[in-house]
Write a structure and sequence with these properties.
This protein is of the alpha/beta class. The protein contains eight helices and seven strands, in the order E-H-E-H-E-H-E-H-E-H-E-H-H-H-E.
Length: 252
Amino acid sequence: MSESTSRWAIITGASSGIGRATARRLAEVGWNVGIHYRQSESAAQQVALEVERQGRKSILLKADLANPTAAGPLVEDAWRQTGGFEAWIHLAGADLLTGPEARWPFEQKLDLITRVDLIGTILSTREAGRRMSNADRGSIVTIGWDQSATGMEGDSGEIFAAIKGGVASFSRSLAKSLGPNVRVNCVAPGWIKTAWGENASSLWQERACREAILARWGTPDDIAQVVEFLISDRALFLTGQTINVNGGVVTS
C-alpha cells in the first residue's frame, strides 16, 4: 500500500497542462486529489475521471483566483470536503500567451498576473499552510519560473520575471513561517511544452532546444514528477528551496 493511500492533495489550476499531469501522477502513487478550476468544468471533470480510474477519490473546486476574496473560501471548501488535506500544490496562473489575453496591453496583463499568480498564491498558500500547521503536517509547492533570477527580454519576460520572482521569494519566507510543521518549496519550470509551446514559432522551438543542455522541451510530466517527489516522505528534509526543472538551461 502506498505511503499516501489516505492522503489528500489539492492542486490549483488542475484542469489542464502541468496541473492535469500532476493530478494524474499523484493518483498513480496513491493520493486522493482535489481539482481546482476557474471556468472549464468539463475539463476538470475529465481530470477527475482520470484520477478515479486509478482507484483514488477526487473532488472539484471552483474559484476565480483573480478575485482576492476567493482564496479563503477555496481553502475552506477544500479542507471541509477532504476532512483535512496534507498537500497544497499551487499551479494556478494567468495565461498571457494564448487566447485574447495575449493581445492585451502591458498594464492589463501585469494587473491580471499580479492578482492571479502572486496575490492568489500568497493568500491561498498562507491559509492552506495555517490549517496544515495546526494539524502538525503538510507540504506546499508553488510554481515559479527558472528565468526569473536571470531575466528575459520583452514584455512577457519582464512580467513573468517580476511576478514569479516574487512567488519564489515569498515561498522561501513562508517556509520559515510554517516550519517545522509544514514544508514549502517552489518549482521553477523552464521551457515546458504546454499549450503555448505546442504552437510556438520555429524560432521559439529552436531556442528552447538550444538553451537546454538536454536539447529538448520539458513536458508537464517532467514537472509532475518533481512535484510528487517534493510532497512525498522522500523529501522530508527539503524546504525553502526553489528547484529549477529546465533541462539544464543556463542563461546570462
